[in-house]
Here is the input.
Amino acid sequence: MRCGLIPALCVVLVAGSVRADDAGGKPGEEPQTVGQYDQLRLDEYGELVIRINDKTIERISGGVKLALLSDDAAMEPLPIEADRVRFTWDEEDRSIPARIILEGGVVVQHAKGAFKADRADWDFKAEKLIFTGNAEVLLDQGTRLRCDEIQLDFVSGEFTLLKGRGGTIYLTPPSDEKAPGEP
Here is the structure.
């Protein structure tokens, strides 16, 4: 199943700089960001491992709760939860991660909807975020879909669901009454 995704949802799901300092780049350069987020706030974690030489985050574990933040007051924080978060970095440009792997109880919560899965692989070069294992999307208008894999493509602004296992798609906003077939 292929659905057009509200472009704003794709844009806001792209993380900002996740360096352990505020430098974000070389002196005199603008701070590096991806999308509209430029900060990572750690709310809860058991362990945080940072590389001393370049102040990049290697991994976070132990029930991670974090939020992506923006200096733009109009941008709401983007909460993310996972048991473990691992970062990989391009050796030539360590200002933005090449990849972020989220494992165990992954939840990416946005005002327009939520994505849940056992695992998520965020490839910044390919500009894709792939959720696997018990994947689920719940959109703000009540649409709820379950599948094996959700692929978000930030270039096309679409997401693709693979091997679906049911769900409800509201063609009009749901009323206060329960939809047929819903408990």
In short: Residues 7-12 form the longest helix (6 residues). The chain has one helix and ten strands.
